[in-house]
Write a structure and sequence with these properties.
Two copies of one chain form a homodimer.
Chain A: E1 3-10, H1 32-44, E2 51-52, E3 61-70, H2 77-85, E4 92-100, E5 112-121, E6 137-139, H3 145-153, E7 157-160, E8 175-186, E9 190-197, H4 204-217, H5 225-231, E10 246-252
Parallel strand pairs in A: 3-10, 5-6
Antiparallel strand pairs in A: 1-3, 1-4, 2-3, 5-9, 5-10, 7-8, 8-9
Helix pairs in contact in A: 1-2, 3-4
Chain lengths: 267, 267
């Protein structure tokens, strides 16, 4: 049977994360993978279980998650995403579908992933319009973006990121390569932290963002970042920021398994 | 007792509209006014019932609703909105509070109100990112914005808008003055319809938007608009578009009852 990939976007607010969760004896939790498997099974008239490139946590959003599945697909592939959208809830959208080699593995084949963490700078006694609250973290303290930029540059490179991983990361190696870590400002008093790399440990982007926010608030010195990385001590890094500020923005694959016309630029 | 005004913003998606609804024998419905009265009563330690300038329907949003109440306010007025926000749910925010003359009536004193209706132009087989879906109406057909502009210009002026009112509008006169009706395009394939005027009938902005959309789709001729207005026949105007595309953007009051520093520009 042929193998296919899907590009997906979702508002993670009302999902218990990407991964299917069916606790024994209880109703299955509402997950993106669960909704997608249901919609695929309905459209393709056969049980389908897809595999996601990134196990986003509850509350984390995606502009371009990639999922793969193997099935006979009688729907023309360029129309599959529209057929799925007719059966998916409004908070998850299929954006495209394409055929991939039979051995396509969305996790292992990914060359790099890009995430954005977005923070709203709150001024004392100034309230924000409530329209984008599902997509950012509100920080109540004054923030020095220049300090954050200096600290962010220290994240780039191949390092042991043990200090930036959840204790239950479950991986043998905590060495990862961060390709870029950029801090910038957006309209409406927002700060973005864009992190890309070849792979991320559990909670790694949210801990990097939390550490950079502590730097911005003046509670961690930017020059201390290399030390914190070298010490591998989770307690010296910042808090894990809440999920709603995080979104998966793109995943790059080699040309032979990329979305047609998007080559090395799936975003 | 002194009288005060509040500027409020809300995401109307999860509210049964502005107005308090307490069906006898049933639990009160979740409304913006209900939440605000509860928060005001908690903050001011006395029962408070506020009056809104605009009875927005279920699902309609506001960037700057105005509400008035009469009460002893021991909180410094420039901090009242922050005290309220600590007790309001995240989808409604108090943005400012100021004292007004004792005879302030937020409905009667309003000189003009501005609404925006936002439409996303959907291309065949192209799905939108699901991040702003709570704030727009998705239109599936090709739309000619130039035609909409010509029709929009015909709405401006003092007319009997009976053809653009819900049958249960409940008003003696259906004559209203539309100050401006502008159609424009926004990023991400969105169309905005900005309507301002001295007052609006029930569903009037949503019916104007629905009529302009029919014009954009080619099903109503732009030159027919003056006729439709003159005939006063609801059935010749377009559909009432759904609430989520609509937001109340500003309300103007005379200088002696405007928010300080915002004069005739509350937005």
């Amino acid at each position: 049977m042929p193998r296919f990939a899907l590009r997906l976007a979702y508002d993670g607010t009302d999902f218990h994360g990407w991964q299917r969760q069916e606790p024994p004896g209880l109703a299955p939790l509402r997950t993106v993978q669960g909704e997608l498997d249901r919609a695929l099974t309905e459209v393709l008239h056969a049980p389908v279980a897809c595999q996601g490139a990134s196990r986003t946590d509850a509350g984390v959003h995606a502009e371009a998650q990639v999922a793969a599945f193997t099935a006979d697909c009688r729907v023309p592939i360029e129309r599959l995403h529209a057929a799925l959208n007719a059966r998916l809830p409004e908070d998850v959208r299929a954006l495209a579908a394409w055929q991939v080699p039979d051995d396509f593995d969305p996790v292992r084949d990914a060359r790099s992933k890009g995430y954005r963490y977005e923070i709203a700078r709150m001024q004392p006694f100034v309230a924000r319009l409530p329209f984008d609250r599902r997509f950012l973290h509100q920080a109540m303290h004054p923030i020095d973006v220049e300090r954050m930029r200096i600290a962010a540059a220290c994240m780039v490179g191949t390092h042991d990121f043990q200090a930036f991983a959840h204790a239950q990361h479950g991986r043998e190696s905590t060495v990862r390569t961060v390709h870029a870590c950029d801090v910038g400002t957006l309209p409406d008093d927002r700060i973005m932290i864009d992190v890309s790399g070849n792979g991320f440990l559990y909670n790694m982007v949210r801990i990097i963002a939390g550490t950079l926010l502590e730097v911005g608030r003046g509670r961690i010195d930017p020059d201390a970042i290399p030390d914190i990385i070298a010490a591998g001590d989770r307690s010296r890094a910042g808090n894990t920021l809440p999920p709603q500020g995080l979104r998966l923005r793109w995943i790059h694959y080699p040309a032979d398994r990329s979305e047609p016309g998007r080559g090395f630029d799936i975003a």
